[in-house]
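Entry 14: structure prediction run for HpcH/HpaI aldolase/citrate lyase family protein. Input pasted below.
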Amino acid sequence: MTQISNPPPHRPRRSCLYMPASNERAMAKAASVDADVIILDLEDAVAPDAKDSARQAACDAISARKFGARETVIRINAPDSIWGQNDLRAAVASGVGAVLAPKVTSAADIAAIDSAMTAAGAASDLPLWVMIEMPAAILNITEIAAASRSSRLSAFVVGTNDLAKEMRATSVPGRAPFLTALHMTVMAARAFGLAAIDGVFNDIGDLDGLEAECAQGRMMGYDGKTAIHPAQLAHCNRIFSPEAEEVAQARAVIAAFADPANAGQAVIKVDGRMTELLHLEEAKRTVAIADSIAAAAN
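Run finished. Output tokens:
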């Protein structure tokens, strides 16, 4: 497996829009939507008889850089499916920003996908994202996250729809049946330095419900949310963006620790608040994301 020594820089992943690669109209629209990440889907959103043409369409779009500076991801079919390995090889060759693999359940799955990426000629810094959507993945979440130490694994994407199906659970406002899984996933991601992206909100017309779920996900610590329709993007972007006061406080923390008067101090007072070095790390992350959002808007 491939050891990644330098994690990718902080970048906004407030909104990650799934686009079915079999839908030409949707693919064309994706070039202009305000999503931080475009996920071209070869799996759930594509019928079996359209898998091959969807793969080609996705890879052609990536190779032609139709999505500009946005982060691009291809969600492949399960690696052990009849399409999975062809999907993976084509995605690697396309120049995509990351490969998203579904249905993982163990660290062994991560090792196998990473080895397949290497065999396909993937660069050592091509990120692997994985769907966390199976009960076994939740039970094995720590070992899966720990596999990032010796692989390309860099992000978890929660698949609440598949999780609901596998659990035989009911999706309800507040997501009570999935709170344990959501908390365990984000904690494992944070323990091993991975990005964590929340699951989709299915009711496209219920923007109040979407906002509530975005706020819940941010409160838990998720970096952003997957979306199924462009109408959801503005809400995801707003709620997962650092607030102005938060950014101002982060800049104040960075400046205070950079002040020669505070050299060597582990704990200082910033605007009347006791502030430790651990707050400096989070402040730098907040400012980096805010600056990236501002740069993309200009």
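Notes: The chain is about 45% helix and 15% strand. Will compare against the previous run tomorrow.
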